[in-house]
Amino acid sequence: MYSKEFEKIFKIAKDKADDVEIMLSVGKSFRVRVHEQEIESFDYADDKGIGIRIIREGRVGYAYTEEFSDDAFEMIVNEAVENSKYLEDEGVVLLDGYPDAEMNLDIYNPELDEVDIEEKIRQTKDLERIAYAFDKRVFSVSHCIYGDGFHYTRIANTRGLNKEYKANLATMFISVIVQDGEDKQSYADYIATRDFRDIDPEQLARCTVNKAIELLNPKSIAPGTYPVVFDNSSMSSMLATFSSIFSSKRAQEGQSLLAGKHGEVVANHHVTIIDDALYHGGHSSRPFDYEGYPSQKTTLIEKGKLKSLLYNTQTAAKEGRESTGNGSRSYKGNLNVSPSNLYMTPGKVNRDALFAKHDKVIEIVSLAGLHSGANDISGDFSLSAEGFLYEKGIKKHAIQQFTISGNFLDMLKNVELIANDFRFSLGSVGSSSTLVAKLSISN
Amino acid sequence: MLPKPLIEKVIEKALSRGADFAELFVENQYQSNITLNDSKVKQSIVGRDYGAGIRVIYGSLAIYAYTNDLQEASLLAAADAVSKAAKSDCRVKALDLTTLAYKNLHPYQIMANDIAKKEKIDLLLNIDKHARAYSKLITQADLGIYERMQHVLIANSEGVFVEDDRHYSRIRVTSIAEKNGEKQTGSESPGGLIGYEFFRGLDLEDLGMKASQIAVTMLEADYAPSGKFPAIIDNGFGGVIFHEACGHGLETTSVAKGVSVFSDQLGKQIANPVVTAIDDGTMPNMWGSENVDDEGMPTKRTVLIENGILKSFMVDRIGSQKTGYEKTGSGRRESYKYAPASRMRNTFIAPGKSKLDELISSIDYGIYAKKMGGGSVQPGTGNFNFAVAEGYMVRNGKIAEPVRGMTLIGNGPAVLHKISMVADNIDYAAGMCGSVSGSVPTSVGQPAIKIDDIVVGGRKES
Predict the structure, then answer these.
(1) Residues of chain A with C-beta less than 8 angstroms from the C-beta of B458
(2) What is the C-alpha separation between B34 and B110, in angstroms, rounded?
(3) How far is CA B111 from the centre of its chain?
(4) pTM of the full predicted structure?
């Protein structure tokens, strides 16, 4: 797609820059929201953008545009050249042809693009209807949404690279508020898939309403230090929030807790964390990264020991090593480093075993304030949480909104046991229920 | 941006199958972002955002489509697509767009692209120098200068036609202090709906030092205790408590569905009588201000709560249609990629009569949150949380030692009644607020307030 535009930009840049990389991102998406069995909104999106990276006299410059016209292309080349005069990224910037990549990842399902819109609406209405009908205590279905999207990425450079891939995904999301007397609780969940037949409104509605109902009539507990189980989805939230500690870029800038700890024990021996851009059918799977570098599977922490961080070619060159294929960038931004499918490997025990380890255990099923109450530079967190109190392995009651506080690295060191209920619960971040020996609780 | 006859044609096309309302939003934006780290320029990127969104309302159904292809054929195709949800053919009255005149409340002098990059970089380097000079414990400073010139055009089937230029300027400094392998951060990030002259008016030394002072203070601080205590939340960014605990619940996006805990509370005493709260888009050159909202309505000053009584919600077009309340000029969106929704502008608790000292001396044992971090709320339950960026203990009516790692949680409706004292030292702070229609610039503000008790989540082992 857009070969003509690529040629135009290469031509404009020919005499102005030594090397050029062009990244094109094209997206199409659809979303429907249902409220009280009426369609509340339809959204159609059709967008595209081009970001360029130029090298001139050994310096790099960036610019982007969403307007595809000769004037705009001229503007971005000139701006990128101008920007290159000031950037002081001392690393060597590499553009290369890079070998071909694994393309058979099952990240695009043509059938999904063919699903009838009426069918999507019917399923979304079913989701809401089932949720309301399931229990009298359902006070409101605050969000009931189906969405799907397609994206296409193409990267080319003056060193002969020219690669493309496409991917799609459908998601269904529900959030419910349940009420019992004066008490209101809410819970939200979603499913994401590339096979429309996997979408099961009944299952999603029931699970979400059940979770919300379990949270009703919470009691407070004494503030103090408790053993804590993060369920698989809240563990994924923690891992996602602190994923930047694995960024070599952040480490090189002095902003990662893992800087300089290669080979050291940074977590309990139960903990193995992997980034795998080749994970079959994974939400963030891709044949190559945003530099066109082939994707790979990288073990970050193996049985507690730090094995590797995530690299792009630039941060890798600074340390004299190879990229891990984690170069990331939107057309609007600079080259960065990001995880792809990031996950903690599952343990062997049933999740019930986690609650039986101590007399009192607190389970966390939902977290809030992750963007403000967690500091990925210090590792400190103090978050709002919802969950349950277990005594001698038995669920006693929901706990009134409480806080959990600690430090992410301490928490990884204090992992006592991991269950076998693995799930990619946060799109491309996956975990299993995880028992942490102690965390501070307040409510 | 686009010729009027084309705009009329697009709106007429969107209406052609019997829709009640159609609207076109066109955006052309220049963005520049320069960041500094290790005292070096690590990012300098300029770009153009460009696109149009077409919205059609048919009964209670809203249809939105956007594209960044603004050729006549593509726009008409998009208009045709959104029109299809309506069921019948109908004759569309010829549209006569009338340009809406408004007073420019937020004049600016110097455009972002009229200033050489060198000057912007020197400005960042200057702040960087002051941030690092504050203490040897400062090991890193992360800075950024962000400018955005957004040109919008809004036209609708009611004949409204309006254009506006919004020039945003913001600067950010984060200092990192380090000792014995531990790291703490402190940040400052002022901004305004104003031109480059904003940066020239800043006290750069003060800005760098303030960020570093927080980082160093927090590095020396012990962990905060856990439990329920009285709290003083100081001015400026402290207003995030009202923003989260109450503000989001007063947006018709959640009120119209009956989801908000405040849905049926209009005219009722929802807060302590010392609380008066306002959402105001007219404040000159403030970060959350506008001339017109993203639905083409001139912005307003809206009294939300007066002496504790709920006076008004924040109402956009859809919200007005669903609730029957008058629009308050609160329809906002991040960009053409979002349909508008009711959103906050500059939202603050009005100054009271007490002095900060009186608030502090009224507490035997509690906490003093000098500077807040961000937070979030669940509008359905009213449960909110927010982080304290710079906090201290209060002992025997005096500010005592600094404490770190604090999050405050509570329930919006409950906490509004617990605000028992309001000081007179009002101040405001810039932030980005994320919600259904994307991330929009908003200001929060308040004088210092006293909350009789709130749950503090710390990690000091007791």
Answers:
(1) 382, 405, 440, 442
(2) 18
(3) 22
(4) 0.91
